[in-house]
Amino acid sequence: MQWQINFMNSGGIFDLSTKQNELNELEKEVMTPNFWGNSQRVQTVNQRIAALKEEIGEYEKIKSAVDDLQILTELAIEENDTSLETEIQNGVTTVTTQLEKLELRLMLNGEFDENNAILSINPGAGGVDAQDWAGMLMRMYLRWCDQRNYTTEIADLTAGDEAGIKGTTIFVRGASAYGYLQAESGVHRLVRLSPFDYNNRRHTSFAAVHVTPEIDESVDVEINTEDLRIDTYRASGAGGQHVNVTDSAVRITHIPTGIMVQCQNERSQHKNREIAMKELRSRLYIHFRAQRDEELAKLQPERRDIDFGSQIRSYVLHPYQRVKDTRTNVETGNVDAVLNGDIDMFIESFLKMKAAENK
Length: 359
Known about the structure:
Number of helices: 9
Shape: globular
Structural class: alpha+beta
Order of helices and strands: EEHHHEHEEHEEEHEEHEEEHH
Distance between the termini: 31 Å
Strand order of the largest sheet: 4-5-3-7-6-11-12-13
Radius of gyration: 24 Å
Mean pLDDT: 84
Helix content: 40-55%
Largest sheet: 8 strands, mixed
Number of strands: 13
Strand content: 15-25%
Low-confidence stretches: 1-12, 238-243, 299-309
């Protein structure tokens, strides 16, 4: 039996030497005297080093397993030992699973796929039910982040009138956080018996999830101070007496585009402003890039993909239980697991679909 390892993605075969060279160059940069003076660059480089080490480690782990299977198979053939068949088959299954996970990771080769993510959740029409649904989605994503050992920072959170939330913005930090979470951008639909309806009638609620990459300072984004309106106000969330009696919360509006960001998580107005500006930089970059791409798309209308405003996933709790992704048709009846953060099946199917479309 002949064993080969081909780590394929949309860009080709996994190139161990290229990744090792990149790792070596970044580790050299860490040793330079001026490196630690730029906190944003420190975070970016350290995150990339960790990602490269993990990818290389996975490659070497799989290669070692394949080499062991090669030797075991040759031994079984030479000795005509059929008792090893089960062990070999189990090894093949394990290696195949590991290869699929690494292949999925290698699909994240977009310009910002390796970046941290900014996740925003806002309820749609539907009053308390929609706000409760937005809160359920927030809990789902926080649990998913915990499972992946991603760190999260809630920059803004406005509680709902009776339950749930009126909106939240969460910074998600970890290897390829944006690459994975980009699959979640869109409208999410919930169908259930409303716990807020006295007659216990079935309600349909909507919430919008918006994911953008966190753009580091190395990317040039021009922001004119005269285009900004900065408002301060008292934070409404948790944070102690100091937060509630001082105008520590910050809201920044970019007047030409109407893009508004806010942060009220920190006690310091200066810190809240810093976090809000970081989010504004990312949103403005994506906004202006989208405008440019739209202009290019007008020259090639046949390639333009119009899918805005449609729901990407439905979560049905009554009269049956099912979660179905409308883009990939992947579905499951284990709604509780999904709402507890088990959403990898939907993310993976979306990334595979996206990679197939880009070939």
